[in-house]
Amino acid sequence: MQTVLATAGLLPALGGALPDAAFSPRQTPEPKAGSRRAFTADEEIFAEGDRIAFFYKVASGAVRTYKLLSDGRRQIDAFHLPGDIFGVEAGEEHRFSAEAVTDTKLIIYRASDRSTLAGDGGCLAREVVGALLRGLERAQDHMMLLGRKSARERIASFLIGLSERMTGEESINLPMSRADIADHLGLTIESVSRSLTQLEREGVIALPTNRRSVILRNPAALRRLDA
């Protein structure tokens, strides 16, 4: 854990080794420290190149982290949902920008605040490490998705991933737009819409009228596409 925190630039804030309790597998309570701030939809949280002074936990809403390419195209790195921690990066500057997808509330922690990280038996430090490991796993899955999967398979992977992050719910309210999904999956909006419509015709999903929610009618078929 110390290696992970050191790489993220957080270990100096702890002043050395983590307390023994930081290695306990028990459930971690909500950290008591940290200020809260509300962001409106599409409001910038930080920009690429900003100095890293804070990291964040999503209390409600959703956040996208992304990078603008030299030709103006946008690649969305990840979507951060309630409970997720983001903004922890190696180095002194943010490599990605972050915006609120919808009206969002964040808990904001100062990266250099040793009392916040070490308090409550290292609960927050444990959360940060867990967030880093989950983020690494999702990044590896995303790399495989972009490199090897068809449009339908990418959509299937995306929907299964969201369902699992939302505690296995089969009715998913999508906070992000189809343009966001396209920029995350390396597709065009037309490909996203076409793939969703095809999955609906096959009876794998249902798309209610508002088009911002998806019902997984046949999760097993989605998982076969995701395999």
Notes on the protein architecture:
This is Transcriptional regulator. The chain is an alpha+beta fold and 227 residues long. The chain has two domains: 2-145, Jelly Rolls, CATH 2.60.120.10; 149-226, Orthogonal Bundle (Arc Repressor Mutant, subunit A). The protein is 39% helix and 22% strand. The chain is built from seven helices and eleven strands. Strand 4 and strand 5 (74-80) form a beta hairpin. Helix 4 crosses helix 7 (219-226) and helix 5 (178-185) packs across helix 6.
Count of the domains: 2
The number of helical segments is: 7
Order of helices and strands: HHEEEEEEEEHHEHHEEH
- Give the full name of the CATH homologous superfamily of the largest domain: Jelly Rolls
